[in-house]
Every structure is written in C-alpha cells, then in structure tokens.
Design goal:
Elements lengths: L8 E2 L28 H6 L7 H9 L2 H14 L8 E5 L5 H9 L4 E6 L2 H10 L6 H5 L1 E5 L10 E6 L10 H14 E13 L7 E7 L2 E11 L4 E9 L5 E11 L3 H11 L3 E9 L6 E8 L8 E8 L20
Parallel strand pairs: 2-3, 2-5, 3-4, 5-6
Antiparallel strand pairs: 6-13, 7-8, 8-9, 9-10, 11-12, 11-13
Helix pairs in contact: 3-4, 7-8
Bound molecules: S-adenosylmethionine (SAM).
The site of S-adenosylmethionine has 22 residues, from β3.
Amino acid sequence: MGSVVATTLRAPIMARSNSTRVSSTKKKVKPKSASRTTKRSRALRTAATSDHHELYELSVQCTEAECDFIERAWKQTGRAALPSSLREDFCGTAIASCAWVRRRKSNIAVGVDLDRSVLKWGEQRHWSTLTTAERARLSIHCEDVLTAKTTPVDVVVAMNFSYFLFKERAKLLAYFKRAFTNVRDGGIFICDAYGGSEAHSEQEEERHLDGFTYVWEQHHYNPVNSTVVNYIHFRFADGTELRRAFAYHWRLWTLVELQEILKEAGFGKTVVWWEGTDKKTGSGNGVFRPTTKGEACTGWVAYLVSEKIAVPSRKPAPKSKARTLSA
Ligand SMILES: C[S@@+](CC[C@H](N)C(=O)[O-])C[C@H]1O[C@@H](n2cnc3c(N)ncnc32)[C@H](O)[C@@H]1O
C-alpha cells in the first residue's frame, strides 16, 4: 500500500490536515495524520518493534478528513441528502471503510483489495473493534478492483493514487469503466492525483512524526513513458530503519489525461478540486475547492470528482389518435 504525496486534508488522500507543501512554490507532501501515538510508544519505537501498516496509517491516512471530503464533494453536486453507501477500492487495511460505517447508522461500506495479508491485518486491527451492528454494514472483498462486482453505491473512492498502478491507457480506462459500473445513477467517483515540477525529481523527503520519521523517496522517474518508482521508508531514533516498507511502480498521469479518460469511461462531468494556500507559509492549507484553474506548484495534490449522471428513462410518447378526415 501506500501513498505518496500527502495532503493533510484528506486523508487520500484527501483532506488531511496539514498539507506539507513546503516552499513558497507550494510543494505538497503526504499529509500528516492526526497523532494517535503516545509518549510511551514514541519512546519505544524501533524498526524491530514497529508495524509498517500502523506507521503507514499514522503517516498518510486521516479517515475523518477523508469522510468529510466525501460528504462535501457529494453536496457540491447539489444533492440534499448525504451519501450512505461507499465502495473503497484499494482499501488496504480498510480503515476508511470502518470510519464510514462508524460515522452514521445508515452508512454501509464495501472494501476491495486483492492482498489477503493486508486485509487480515485490517480485520484484526479495525473490523474487530466495530460493534456488531457496524460490522453488519461492512463487507470486504479480497478481489481485483477490475473484476470485483458489487451492488452500485453512492460513492466509489480510489485514494492515495492507488490507480496510478495502471500504466497503460487501456487498463486505466477499463478501471474507470468498472468504477462507473459500480457507482449508482446519480452517484460519484472520487480519486486523487499528484503532480508539480518536483513530482518528476528523484528526491527524498522526510516528515518527523511521533516517534518515527516518514520518508517519501521518489527513486526513479522515466520521462519517456512518465513512469515512476517510489518508496516509503520509516526511520527511528535508534538509527534503525524499515527500508522500502512500501514500493510503488506507477505512471504519473496528468489531470487532463485523467479527465479525458473518465469522460470516455462514461462519467458525465468531472470536477477538479484544488487545494488552497496558507497565506503565512505558502503551503497548502488542506482546504480543497472545485476549480478550473490550478497553480504551477512544485508539488500538488488534487481530487477528481466524477458524476454518473442519471439518464432519464424515456417513456414512449403517447400514441396520437389518427385524425380522420371527413369528407
Ligand atoms: C496505496 S495502498 C492504498 C491504501 C489506502 N486505501 C490508502 O488510501 O492509503 C494500495 C492498495 O491497493 C491494493 N491493490 C493493488 N492492486 C490492486 C488491484 N488490482 N485490485 C485490488 N487491490 C489492489 C494493494 O494491495 C494495496 O493494499
């Protein structure tokens, strides 16, 4: 699993709270999640005592912010009622799906991931802590997102750039078509993307969190086909390291390519949500808004919200009575 750049506002990758854009040119790095560690755990953390899934969640996921963003994006489409059904593609530990079913009694969530080991971890860590009623509103599928068939939902999400693993246009189109099928009429599909001049640089960035350091390494970029190899490492105060805890072999898709492919997949409308700027720091402020114009940041994270516009069913026109001409 893993994500790359982080936004603090979301948490997929959407609203996490502190976006770490770090320069006046607005660089965004993976968002910091709310601190969930204690002083005790801080003191004890070493590579040997740490769990890479736990550190991943602490570094780049903020499910409260992610759920907030889903509801904001939904409201922006003009619907009065809140969404209730969610499908989380590439769900990993399914922490977001669990947060969704906890959020409201009417919420249901479906998580899809093909890695049985991460799902098992999520079961032990998260699903087992749900109440019986919450657990009954969560279903997890150990399947490929390209083939997993589930009942159409209000919202499908693919966060932390997970779909960047589809490097060929035809593959990405197939995935977006599948997402289109999995969204009900009038529903939305949300995914995130990152970019900016530094997205093409081979570089390493550190973020110091509670008791460990999150390291985002852009190891390799190939300008010929726009593919990248990125790693997440975790470092500890005692000098130990969980090296290459997560590896990502991706294609860096541009927002315009994504919008075109989403349209081809059937989505009637896609809106890009761009992060605002903190006036004091020049960094991202964690607040995303719909826009048609971004800025030339060195690093940015954005959301794409695509609507499956319901086509009104056409009732056959009533047969008009044939006029008889009287002589
Ligand atoms: C970057 S993690 C995403 C974790 C989490 N959802 C997040 O937002 O940070 C990507 C996840 O996608 C899963 N995955 C990769 N290819 C997949 C596929 N074709 N179908 C389903 N899951 C897949 C991996 O097992 C991994 O858990």
